[in-house]
Amino acid sequence: MNSFCFLIVVSCCLVGAFAASDCQEHRERELKAKVKATLVPKCDANGDYEALQCFEGSKFCMCWRPDGSHITDPSTAIKTCKCHVHRDNELAKSRKGMVGNFVPQCNNSGTYASKQCHGSTGFCWCADEEGNKVSEQSTMNSFCFLIVVSCCLVGAFAASDCEEHREREANSKIKAKLVPKCDANGDYEALQCFQGSKFCMCWRPDGSHVTDPSIAIKTCKCHLHRDREVTRNPLADREHYDAPQKYYD
Questions:
Q1: Per-residue model confidence as pLDDT tens digits over 115-145
Q2: What is the three-class DSSP state of 226?
Q3: Please, what is the end-to-end C-alpha distance for the chain in angstroms?
Q4: CA 164 to CA 191: how far, in whole Å?
Q5: With contact defined as beta carbons under 8 Å apart, do 21 and 47 qualify?
Q6: Cβ contact 156:185 at 8 Å
Q7: CA 199 from chain center: how many Å?
């Protein structure tokens, strides 16, 4: 009996202490793959995915969550994920019902935008690239004098997140970019497509992603329906729950 119990304890220790994490297994698979320009994920000390992930042999990088899901699309502009991760965490809180939390604005590089505004209070301020406040809070008709003068108008005439995002991308020199489309309320439209390619995605009104880029996506009606049901009830993502299924033409 003692011998049998000892073996069970040893087995449990092997599974718990020495089992490879999802990131570590993913990394091992990619290292063995023969695909060019592959992304070999980096894992932190806990075995989770690091935030900044870059493709080998290229300048394209992405921001990932600890579980390996994507926060951003691949981009040559991304140098850090500090702001993108912060924004993603706050948007997740909002989707879970938290009201009044501050959702930061990010530059394409992943740094914090010079103008930051709190959507609930209407206050704006100037920030450095690390997100540190460098001016006192102000309201309508105030300005942020950093390297570039940036108007901090808030209220009825302030540009929405989507409209500001669209303006940044429209002025960017990056090829194969996605210039977001905004609806009449200033929210992100559901179907978003990359310029000069057949890749499209489905987005939520706040700009977070429902799907990854795909050449198969032609409409987002079912994707959005499914996303709402899964958000409302986590069981909707399991096979036995009657959530709408996604099909491609």
A1: 888 887 778 888 899 999 887 666 543 444 4
A2: helix
A3: 60
A4: 18
A5: yes
A6: no
A7: 18
- How far CA 81 is from CA of 65, 72, 118, 175, in Å, comes to 10, 9, 21, 21
If you search the block for the tokens 């977001």, which residue do you land on?
A: 180
pTM recorded for the entire structure:
0.54
Type of residue at 32: K
Residue pLDDT, tens place only, 69-119: 999 989 999 999 999 999 999 999 988 888 888 999 999 999 999 888 888
Burial of 13 (0-12, 13-18, 19+ CB in 10 A): exposed
C-beta separation of 201 from 214 below 8 A: yes
CA angle 215, 83, 128 (to 5 degrees): 135
Q: How many residues make up the chain in this entry?
A: 249
The total of other beta-carbon atoms located within 10 Å of residue 117's CB is: 24
CA distance 99 to 126: 23
Which residue is it, tokens 């958000």? Answer: 231
- Report how far residue 103's alpha carbon sits from residue 86's, in angstroms, rounded to the nearest whole number: 8
Rg (CA), the chain: 22
- Per-residue pLDDT band for 147 (boundaries 50, 70, 90) equals very low
